[in-house]
C-alpha cells in the first residue's frame, strides 16, 4: 500500500512537470527545446500509473505524451483560419 502512494505521487508529478515544460513555449512564446523531455517524463508517468492501475493518470500522462502533436494540430487550425 505504501508503494502505491509513491507511485501515484510520481505519476502526478510527471503530469505537472510536463505542463511546466510547455509554459515557456506556449505562454511566453520562447522557443525552448525542453518540450522533448515530455516524451520521457510522460512515459515514466504512464508506467507508474499503470503499476497502480489508475486509469485517469494513465490517460492524463498519455495526453501529455502526445501534447506536442495536439498543440501542433491546434496551432495549424488556428493559423489556417487567419
What is the overall silhouette?
Answer: elongated
Largest sheet: none
The number of distinct helices, counting runs of at least 4 residues, comes to 4
Which spans have pLDDT < 50 for at least 5 consecutive residues?
A: none
Distance between the termini: 53 Å
> How many domains, as an integer?
1
Rg over CA atoms: 14 Å
- Estimated helix fraction: over 70%
Based on helices, strands and strand pairing, what is the structural class? mainly alpha
Mean of all residue-level pLDDT scores = 89
Order of helices and strands: HHHH
Number of strands: 0
* Proportion of residues in β-strands: under 5%
Question: Can you give me a brief rundown of this structure?
Answer:
With 82 residues, this protein is an all-alpha fold. Helix content is 80%, strand content 0%.
Give a verbal description of the structure.
- Helix content is 80%, strand content 0%.
- The termini are far apart.
- The chain contains four helices and no strands.
- Helix 2 runs antiparallel to helix 3 (55-65).
- By secondary structure, it is mainly alpha-helical.
- The chain has one domain (2-81).
- The relative contact order is 0.17.
Keywords:
mainly alpha, elongated
Topology diagram in text:
Blueprint: H1 2-26, H2 37-51, H3 55-65, H4 67-81
Helix pairs in contact: 1-2, 1-3, 2-3
Amino acid at each position: 500500500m505504501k508503494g502505491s502512494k509513491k507511485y501515484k505521487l510520481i505519476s502526478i508529478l510527471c503530469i505537472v512537470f510536463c505542463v511546466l515544460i510547455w509554459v515557456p513555449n506556449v505562454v511566453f512564446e520562447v522557443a525552448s527545446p525542453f518540450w522533448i523531455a515530455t516524451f520521457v517524463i510522460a512515459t515514466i508517468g504512464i508506467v507508474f500509473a499503470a503499476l497502480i492501475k489508475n486509469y485517469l493518470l494513465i490517460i492524463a500522462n498519455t495526453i501529455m505524451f502526445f501534447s506536442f502533436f495536439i498543440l501542433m494540430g491546434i496551432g495549424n487550425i488556428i493559423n489556417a483560419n487567419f
